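=== Structure Prediction Worksheet ===
Name of assembly: unnamed complex
Input type: mixed (protein and possibly other molecules)
Chain count: two
Listed entries:
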Amino acid sequence: MKLKIDIFHKQGPFVLDTNLLLEGSSIGIYGHSGSGKSTLLRCIAGLLRPSVGLIELNNETLFDSDCRVWVPPHKRRIGMVFQDAQLFPHWSVRKNLKSGKAKRTELPYTEEQVINLLQIAPLLSRSVQDLSGGEKQRISLARTLLSYPRLLLMDEPLSAMDARLKSRILPFLDRIHRELAIPTLIVSHDLSEILQLSDRLILLKEGHVAAYGTLDSVVAHDEMAELIQEKDLNQIIGHQLRGRDTTPDFYHERKISH
Amino acid sequence: MINLTPTELSAIGLSLKVAIGVATAVLFPSVLLGWLMARREFPGKILLESLVHAPLVVPPVVTGYLLLMTFGKQGWLGKHLGMELAFSWEGAVLASSIVALPLAVRSVRMAISLVDRRLEETALTLGRSPVWIFLHITLPLAWPGVLGGVLLAFSRSLGEFGATITFAGNIEGVTQTLPLAIFTALQMPGGENQALRLTIFSLILCILSLIISEVLTRKTIHSYEVKDRHFS
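=== Predicted Assembly ===
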């Protein structure tokens, strides 16, 4: 995936000003509430029109304010999974799964593959209202995957879940990325999720890109020191221990002091 | 058993005919206007809203007079129409529709506003077009409100008086609906009994239409549940 984002968007007092060339298959977006994470995803999906700028996906222009190019969201083939599953309440689980429009002639994976991957076969005969939060989110993921997106955006897909449920869903997200090979952009304010699911990281701060690069390089960035939460320290150190240890000293110091 | 006179029977039949005409006539414009007002921002929106809602505050006689100036035999639009709307039952439908439209639009607008926008956004990211989304997501979810609005217009038209008498007149068997027949009976010496009978029928019809509205709304909600089970 090659995604170029050079946009400026003003919404009241908030300004999103990003200039990025994203390459990779799984990219995390991290930042505090109000840093512009969701706004950035909505601009990429086409749900929000930036004030000015340019968005290109694999050399195809999706938005260019200078040339007045605007590809509407339903023609972008960019899937999005929201914090709430957003299942259509008047339809069955099966019909929800079929609500996506597949625009490809050659499908890279089958419906059965997705159903098996997310282990939702027992849920197909259930009513949407009878599903638990985790089950709803798995159906939502499956529905998005069955619209065969060329890029998958996930906006805090686990934030409405408790820790136990998160630990059950995380492996599914990881498998989507590995087995179906769909480039993914995942937004989270929980660094541990990003560390598990991404190979590159964007650090957003007040609408600006504070850092972008590999997990190691961004985690070691000075700006991270302000954003990092205590609960993430274990994750970071665990992650660093699995790979090359470039953990900045202040992380070790903070960990030791607690 | 109450024996109804031909005049009374005609007034009841005509009222139902006009009310069904109104319910049919307001369906499409109320859905379109309700959706525009709930989901779109455009220049002149406030003006459009004011125009649609004007019949709620403008005296019905004024509405009828304006219709007469527009669609009457010598009206600026009427003289090109090739058919006479004024003083016909179709004219009574038009007058009642204009008066009842704001009620239907308000109900539809409220129903569409209540549909979670994020569902529509989700459908967009699934590759579905705005028209598909409106027909398959927004409208089905707002349907009870749409139905409620149309039935409210039906009920309102049963009680319409001012605009109808001004534009369509009070012609027995042609445009004399229940309220007009009650008015005529009250003008006649000894017509109190007839007025009372028609009043009772008018009340029965209005209450029945409200009960039907409630039953249909519940049925619509129930049908979603059945459909959901059927697909699953």
